[in-house]
Write a structure and sequence with these properties.
- The protein is of the alpha/beta class and 485 residues long.
- It is built from 15 helices and eleven strands.
- An eleven-stranded mixed beta sheet has the order 1-3-2-4-6-5-10-11-9-7-8, with helices on both faces.
- The structure holds glutamine (GLN).
- Glutamine binds at residues 127-130, 153, 173-177, 205, 312, 424.
Length: 485
């Protein structure tokens, strides 16, 4: 039986009705990874032994499949999340040999819920990038066209879902790293509201932005996986103490009467015409379903790239100071003194993009420059947040493209960091504001590359954006199309 293509909720029916065993399913996913992933490079490591052992506990009746909606389901994990006793690299050579002594909060939750964790996925080093090409272990490839990038930084997690190398996965989003690869790979990706999901055990990139979320084959799966990982955690002081709703409950509700805003700043000169057309057509589908489309303006959108690429590197330069060759991972031996040990370990351990960010971040935080850069960027961030707050006085959710372009070719932007940064223009604003956003497949280019529709909502409106996306998804068939591998 070919169950690799099934979304989590359908795979679960199969397991519950005993048409397939958990070990059988797990094994066949592992076999599929072993035969296909050399072409895609979605995984950095498999957790095969533990996964099979956990699977057998279900088949032997020691654990019940009723314990949650993801029990018995193979899930892949972005390698920036700490997994106890399992190598965690963050896509970086500097963490060579690092084996976390504890699980991230989301990993604990998945384990409690009975998910089968099958492996750790590839990513841009420390989640810095938009293409997965900044991984210290080689890039991942887009299942729809192996010459193209899967997006990033959660490229491995998105490619794994798109290529049916797992039933669902976790990614992280600091400036678009869940939504953009989901869009490039034709799957669903959801960045929750800042504070919705505990980041205990997530290796920090930019702490005022980082958030963990699901990447899945459809919206219903995103809702149920979010339900498992969301919730308060005292170990993360930014996690919000607020009840976790049943995210699947309202999916079937009609969008009739909902006001959906279209921000004019998200259709810009120079963007790919097929992306713009496809996204506009998707909006018409929702209008056809009874939603009211309203034009809105988010006037500070154009400053998001500049503000983000000050704030994120500033925070990164501070967070990454801990990699000194002493506490974790790589240490270059035989240095003549402490300073040269630091210098050599960091020089050899970090890749070029990470070094660029550390230098940028250190510069913008240095005394005398703080006011001109970091403070200014923080003020711009406030303006961007207000743009959204004002827009949400006029509409219930916003719809926009996820990225100005579809998946680009490997190597196309590696020599031009600025071009790479500019491709994040439509995902950064929501990250700076801290609001939830998702990407749902909404069509394909003539070359057969997936295009995503971005749905954004006010703080803690995950239920609403899921509902809007579900109504779109269920009235179209884009999510059912599969890459041929
Ligand atoms: N592409 C953005 C960056 O390079 C966002 C990355 C992310 O969300 N982790 O920083």
């Amino acid at each position: 039986m070919d169950f690799h293509q099934l979304p989590i909720h359908e795979l679960r029916s199969l397991l519950l009705s005993k048409q397939a065993g958990v070990e059988e399913v797990t094994k066949s996913y592992l076999d599929r990874i072993r035969s296909l992933d050399s072409r895609i490079g979605a995984y950095l490591a498999l957790m095969a032994d533990q996964a099979l052992e956990d699977a057998r506990a279900f088949d032997r009746g020691e654990r019940s499949l009723d314990c949650s909606e993801v029990a018995g389901v193979p899930i892949a994990i972005k390698d920036v999340l700490c997994t106890q006793s399992v190598r965690t690299t963050c896509g970086s050579r500097i963490l060579e040999g690092f084996i976390p002594p504890y699980d991230a909060a989301v990993i604990e939750r998945l384990k409690q819920a009975g998910a089968i964790l099958i492996g750790k996925t590839n990513m841009d080093e420390f989640a810095m990038g938009s293409s997965c090409e900044n991984s210290g272990f080689g890039p991942s490839r887009n299942p729809w066209d192996l010459e193209r990038v899967p997006g990033g930084s959660s490229g491995g997690s998105a490619a794994a879902v798109a290529a049916d190398l797992c039933a669902g996965s976790l990614g992280t989003d600091t400036g678009g790293s869940i939504r953009q690869p989901a869009s490039f790979c034709g799957v669903v990706g959801l960045k929750p509201t800042y504070g919705r999901v505990s980041r205990y055990g997530l290796v920090a990139f930019a702490s005022s932005l980082d958030q963990i979320g699901p990447i899945t084959k459809d919206i219903q799966d995103a809702a149920l996986l979010l339900g498992v990982i969301a919730g308060h955690d005292r170990r993360d002081s930014t996690s919000v103490n607020r009840p976790v709703p049943d995210y699947g409950k309202d999916l079937a509700r009609s969008v009739r009467g909902l006001k959906l805003g279209i921000p004019r700043e998200y259709f810009i000169e120079g963007m790919d015409a097929q992306v713009a057309d496809t996204v506009r057509k998707a909006m018409q589908v929702l209008e056809g379903l009874g939603a009211e489309l309203v034009d809105v303006s988010l006037p500070h959108t154009e400053y998001a790239v500049a503000a983000y690429y000050i704030i994120a590197p500033a925070e990164a330069s501070s967070n990454l100071a801990r990699y000194d060759g002493v506490k974790y991972g790589l240490r270059v031996p035989d240095s003549k003194d402490l300073i040269s040990m630091y210098r050599q370990s960091r020089s050899r351990g970090f890749g070029p993009e990470v070094k660029r960010r550390i230098m940028l971040g250190t510069y913008v935080l240095s005394s005398g420059y703080y006011d001109a850069y970091y403070r200014k960027a923080s003020q711009v961030r406030t303006l961007i947040r207000r743009d959204f707050e004002q827009a949400f006085e006029r509409c219930d959710a916003l719809m926009a493209p996820v990225a100005p372009i579809p998946a680009f070719r490997l190597g196309e932007k590696t020599d031009d960091p600025l071009q790479m940064y500019l491709s994040d223009a439509f995902t950064l604003p929501a990250s700076l504001a801290g609001i939830p956003g998702l990407s749902v497949p909404c069509g394909f280019t003539e070359e057969g590359l997936p295009i995503g529709l971005q749905v954004l909502g006010p703080y803690f409106s995950e239920e609403r954006i899921l509902q809007v996306a579900y109504q779109f998804e269920q009235n179209t068939a884009h999510h059912l199309r599969k890459a041929s591998l």
